Q: What sequence folds into this?
């Protein structure tokens, strides 16, 4: 039991001493996961919306695939990206393995299907309400996707949060493609894995508390932004 | 719309600044066994080397088997591991230039205070393992093809115990690193084989202690190898050579000897000049 108290005290001490090592890994965690979120949003939002508004042969298959890919284990994606970026792999010449860029790529692949699949669901239900209107106003296809995405923006914020949560919490992919290199690719989750391996469970748990705190802060910020924006939009 | 736009702008900034931050400075990548990293040896050694040469050393700490695999994919400039036959094979297959002894310590068997197999204080490791097997006392194996795992398998073979058929009963393969395996062993009150460095710097010992040590068969030699640029053109030759030469130099060897945890020396330099 003393481990819990010790971890709690340690987490508070780490936070309020503004430990430079902690700030470095927190900053890298945010940088990697927010970048991955941005890229995955760029891919997933329009793709999910496009699948929702179009009818084409094989559409059911695409939807099943998207939903299934939400369950891809991070370690499999890590392995895949390792094999691509390894010097012996097809993209080895880029020299990206063991850099933050490799971690961003892996996390983007991890969460883009999640964002696409959830976006599809959100937009599809909205499209049901809008389709008559679109048809009567003769809205061309290339205007429908942005319109639906814009009008669903508050629900899509939650979708983006789900993606961010998955990215910032995963350890399997960034461990393999980042290598947990001190001052270069060490993030919150790989640091926690390392402290656990050293048997320093209190330190590991303290870092875990900090990670939870970051998640709460990000989620809280988004909710505040959403409420402010909603007030303005519907005022 | 204004707020999401700023949000997206901030995100793009993150995305733009995220890549290639460490590309400018001189650096090299070491594929390493975990014990040297988890014990804090690199935290002690690397600042000395970096101050002297200005070369930043990046460490990827994985099991010896994975480290060798990564290095043969050219994903590293120097290899520092502890499984001599596998190291020699790496060089013989043309992946490495030459293998040099750099330092040693030893393996130990750790176990719970209750000592269910009654092996505490034994010197002969094979006899102790045979006794653990005879008692069906739980034993946690790394099971991850690391240097320690290779050593452990060889010791069981020497003790003439067939652990394969016992896997899942008293013999349990964790398939993970030394630290995780020690956590598992402590959690289930099982014996395990560890390198001394990881054990001494391990913080979650519970009521565990060293039960078997001092057998010559428990010798643990660490070797260092430069990845061959003929096989891997991307290798950072000059930086890799500088690091390896420094490790083997009197200065580097003295630095290794100077690293202690709780007043105990963890690695003993033995490079031949």
A:
């Amino acid at each position: 039991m003393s481990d819990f108290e010790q971890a709690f005290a340690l987490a508070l001490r780490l936070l309020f001493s503004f430990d430079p090592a902690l700030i470095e890994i927190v900053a890298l965690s945010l940088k990697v996961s927010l970048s991955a979120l941005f890229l995955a949003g760029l891919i997933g939002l329009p793709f999910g919306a496009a699948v929702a508004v179009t009818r084409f042969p094989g559409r059911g298959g695409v939807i099943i695939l998207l939903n299934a890919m939400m369950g891809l284990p991070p370690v499999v994606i890590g392995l895949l990206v390792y094999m691509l970026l390894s010097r012996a792999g097809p993209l080895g010449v880029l020299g990206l393995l063991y850099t933050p860029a490799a971690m961003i790529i892996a996390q983007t692949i991890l969460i883009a299907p999640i964002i696409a699949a959830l976006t599809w669901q959100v937009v599809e239900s909205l499209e049901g309400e809008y389709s008559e209107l679109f048809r009567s106003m003769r809205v061309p296809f290339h205007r429908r996707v942005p319109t639906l995405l814009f009008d669903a923006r508050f629900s899509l914020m939650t979708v983006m949060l789900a993606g961010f949560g998955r990215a910032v919490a995963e350890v399997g992919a960034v461990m393999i493609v980042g290598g947990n290199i001190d001052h270069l690719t060490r993030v919150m989750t790989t640091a926690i894995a390392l402290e656990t391996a050293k048997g320093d469970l209190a330190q590991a748990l303290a870092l875990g508390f900090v990670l939870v705190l970051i998640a709460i802060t990000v989620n809280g910020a988004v909710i505040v932004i959403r409420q402010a924006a909603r007030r303005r939009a519907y005022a | 719309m204004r707020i999401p736009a700023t949000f997206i702008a901030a995100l793009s900034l993150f995305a733009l600044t995220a890549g290639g931050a460490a590309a400018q400075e001189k650096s090299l990548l070491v594929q390493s066994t975990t014990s040297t990293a988890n014990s804090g040896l690199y935290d002690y050694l690397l600042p000395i080397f970096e101050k002297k040469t200005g070369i930043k050393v990046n460490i990827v700490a994985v099991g010896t088997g994975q480290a060798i695999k990564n290095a043969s994919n050219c994903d590293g400039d120097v290899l520092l591991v502890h499984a001599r036959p596998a190291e020699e094979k790496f060089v013989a297959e043309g992946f490495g230039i030459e293998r040099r002894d750099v330092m040693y310590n030893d393996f130990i068997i750790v176990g719970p205070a209750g000592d269910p197999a009654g092996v505490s204080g034994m010197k002969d490791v094979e006899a102790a393992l045979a006794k653990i097997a005879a008692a069906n006392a739980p034993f946690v194996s790394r099971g991850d093809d690391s240097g320690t795992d290779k050593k452990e398998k060889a010791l069981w073979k020497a003790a003439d115990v067939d652990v394969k058929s016992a896997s899942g009963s008293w013999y349990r393969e964790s398939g993970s690193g030394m630290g995780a395996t020690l956590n598992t062993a402590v959690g289930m009150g099982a014996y395990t084989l560890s390198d001394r460095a990881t054990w001494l710097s391990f913080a979650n010992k519970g009521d565990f202690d060293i039960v078997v040590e001092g057998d010559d068969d428990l010798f643990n030699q660490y070797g260092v190898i430069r990845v061959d640029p003929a096989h891997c053109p991307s290798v950072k030759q000059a930086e890799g050579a500088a690091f390896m030469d420094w490790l083997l130099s009197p200065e580097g060897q003295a630095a290794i000897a100077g690293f202690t945890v709780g007043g105990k020396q963890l690695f003993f330099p033995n490079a031949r000049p």
Summary: Chain A has ten helices and no strands. Chain A has a mean pLDDT of 91. Residues 2-234 of chain A form a domain with the MetI-like fold fold (CATH 1.10.3720.10).
